[in-house]
Write a structure and sequence with these properties.
Strand content of chain A: under 5%
Helix content of chain A: over 70%
Largest interface: A-B, 28 and 48 residues
Oligomer: heterodimer
Strand content of chain B: under 5%
Distance between the termini of chain B: 32 Å
Helix content of chain B: over 70%
Number of strands of chain B: 2
Radius of gyration of chain A: 21 Å
Largest sheet of chain A: none
Order of helices and strands of chain A: HHHHHHHH
Number of strands of chain A: 0
Distance between the termini of chain A: 65 Å
Strand order of the largest sheet of chain B: 1-2
Largest sheet of chain B: 2 strands, antiparallel
Shape of chain B: globular
Structural class of chain B: mainly alpha
């Protein structure tokens, strides 16, 4: 049952991802991305990470994607459809992708002994949210706090770049 | 256990002080703008005291293994601090000339520096990566700080796109490392990797992207493409900061990883580092010959210097690592100094130096000291730095690397002395103007005195570097 669900969600994720980069219309791309993110949420649920599942749906599928759609709709759609979708470097990208794929296949086939021996432990079903809290606020509290500085820097940088010169002068 | 203990706070004290001073700067708005660099200096002095106090608590671990207070980190952070102070002081007159003296500039310099602290003192992959991103994003914004200049905007965009690519590469490497060991902490990673063979192909999958990502950050060839454009387009004081502190912090991170958790896997990374060193020496020194913009020339020469520093890693012995630290310190002094002289000048072509020895003897003498040191001639510190790198290579029996490195010193003499020769020619009409503030004189003068002084008596730096590696 779990296996079947895993393949279903994985298929949703991958199909969504492929559609995101192949559709011409940006709105379709955004919708396909929602699809893909929902698949990821399903995968989280399979790992018994309910909190991440809820956060994924609320934040990514809900908030971020709505923002995305708004931005896209406010831009000129007609122009975007006409633009060339891929740069000339796509053969390089395909080659790189092939290399990574080959690597993965080789390692899954031959190098299983080299990978961590045990399968990933299933998360504790009861204390799911507590474990996330523990990870964020105790084990990884420094990177978690440092991320706020990262966001501040990004905001300052974005506002600075976007502001016109005379707006600052006043 | 409480959320955060005093120990934890003490382990990030300098970074926290700098970040808070940066936040305070964002709220400031003064006429004249002279207050901002002074405020930066006050913050840096406090951070410096913090670093100095930390030296008594070497071995302190903060945030459950996310941060380690050690002499290695203190050394690198002190060098970054010196670069930040010089960039901030040197920027005042430059920004005023461009009518862009806003507190955000100084705030971003401080934010970048607190990111560097996490990079070199962090002992956990996520902390380190977030630190690296704080630094990188600050630099994207700083590079494009002159919004009305197309050159600055273009440089920022190029740097942003290529920088994002390298960060993604690095993150991929980190994620493989995490996948292999199940931990992001260096100590756990080291113990989990202990039973693997040095040439394990799975490790290679982690090492290649990590090393390439960091080589990009230190602007080593063949991943240097962004450097000349970013260095040329950015406001000159930012270039001084970007070429030194950012490179020093990335080297700190590279050394912590390659000499820490990945030390046993030297056969896997040795070749990449060696090729990058030779490529940087070649591309940096050869491309610098033909440049007509002084800033571009120094940018290529800084690619060359990255090659010399990497040679220390190729040697890999105690003397080599020590030489890297010395080289990084000396490189910071002379490069920041040279770029700040450019920042004080109106125009920055190599020809614009013509007759400077007669029109502006003070600035010209300072520039000559930095150029002689960059070229690596005695009696300057640049000579000592290069000499110890070569000595370490010979000790490690890497004779070919030493010979190639020494040959490129000869090449570099040509383009550095092209500038010196221009300075000694008789001045023409419309000679370039040089504007120096008091702070600028103090900062650049100190850098020049140290460059000369450490060449005459390098023992203090060597002693410091030796203690940093204990």
């Amino acid at each position: 049952m779990d296996d079947a669900l895993f393949y279903i969600f994985a298929a949703i994720t991958l199909t969504g991802a492929v559609l995101t980069i192949t559709r011409r219309n940006p709105v379709h791309c955004a919708l396909a991305l929602i699809f893909s993110l929902l698949g990821v949420a399903g995968l989280f649920l399979l790992q018994a990470a309910e909190f991440l599942f809820a956060a994924q749906i609320l934040l990514y599928v809900g908030g971020v994607m709505v923002l995305f759609l708004f931005t896209i709709m406010l831009l000129h759609l007609e122009d975007a459809v006409k633009l060339r979708r891929y740069s000339r470097q796509w053969p390089v990208a395909v080659a790189a992708l092939g290399a990574v794929l080959l690597e993965l296949c080789v390692f899954i086939q031959t190098g299983v002994a080299g990978l961590p021996p045990r399968p990933a432990e299933r998360m504790n079903l009861t204390g799911n949210t507590e474990r996330i809290g523990d990870a964020l606020f105790r084990q990884f509290s420094l990177p978690f706090e440092a991320a706020s500085l990262l966001l501040l820097v990004a905001i300052v940088g974005a506002v600075w770049t976007a502001k016109k010169k005379d707006e600052v002068a006043e | 256990m409480p959320f955060m203990a005093v120990n934890d706070f003490f382990s990030i004290l300098p970074a926290a002080v700098i970040a808070l001073f940066g936040c305070a700067l964002l709220l400031m708005r003064f006429e004249g703008g002279r207050v901002y660099p002074m405020f930066v200096v006050v913050g840096e002095v406090l951070a410096g005291v913090g670093l100095w106090r930390q030296a008594d608590y070497v071995g302190l671990v903060g945030f459950q293994g996310s941060i380690l207070v050690d002499r290695f980190g203190i050394f690198f952070n002190s060098v970054c601090l010196a670069a930040a102070v010089m960039a901030a002081i040197g920027a005042y007159r430059y920004l005023k000339g461009k009518d862009e003296d806003h507190p955000e500039f100084y705030a971003l310099i401080l934010f970048a520096q607190s990111g560097m602290y996490l990079m070199v003192s962090g002992t956990e992959l996520m902390t380190v990566f977030i630190g690296l991103e704080i630094t990188a994003i600050s630099f994207y914004a700083l590079t494009g700080f002159l919004r009305v200049e197309a050159r600055s905007n273009e440089a920022a965009l190029k740097y942003l796109l290529l920088g994002a690519f390298s960060s993604a590469l690095l993150l991929y490497g980190f994620s493989v490392l995490y996948g292999l060991t199940g931990s992001t902490r260096y100590l756990t990673i080291t113990s989990m990797l202990a039973n693997r063979l040095p040439n394990d192909p799975l490790i290679l999958l982690a090492i290649v992207p990590i090393v390439l990502g960091l080589l990009f950050k230190v602007a080593a060839a063949p991943l240097h493409m962004w450097a000349p454009d970013a260095y040329e387009g950015a406001p000159t004081p930012v270039t001084a900061y970007l070429a030194t502190a950012s490179k020093v912090a990335a080297f700190g991170l590279l050394m912590r990883l390659l000499l820490g958790p990945l030390h046993e896997f030297r056969p896997s990374w040795e070749a990449i580092v060696g090729v990058a060193a030779i490529a940087s020496l070649t591309i940096g020194n050869v491309a610098a010959i033909t440049q007509s913009s002084a800033r571009r020339m120094l940018a290529y020469s800084s690619v060359g210097h990255a090659g010399y520093i990497l040679l220390g890693l190729v040697a890999g012995n105690q003397a080599g690592i020590e030489a890297m630290l010395v080289y990084l310190l000396v490189y910071t002094l002379m490069t920041t100094g040279a770029f700040l002289v450019l920042a004080a000048m109106e125009r920055e072509g190599v020809d614009d130096f013509r007759g400077m020895l007669y029109t502006h003897p003070g600035a010209a003498m300072l520039m000559i000291v930095f150029l002689v040191s960059l070229a690596g001639l005695p009696p300057t510190a640049g000579f000592m730095a290069k000499y110890t790198i070569f000595l370490a290579l010979i000790e490690a029996r890497q004779h070919w690397y030493a010979i190639v490195g020494a040959l490129y010193v000869a090449v570099s003499l040509y383009y550095y002395f092209r500038m010196v020769r221009e300075m000694t020619r008789t001045p023409e009409d419309g000679a370039v103007g040089v504007e120096m503030s008091t702070g600028w004189r103090a900062a650049v003068g100190t850098a020049a005195i140290l460059t000369l002084g450490l060449g005459l008596n390098p023992e203090p730096v060597f002693a410091w570097a030796r203690s940093a590696l204990k």
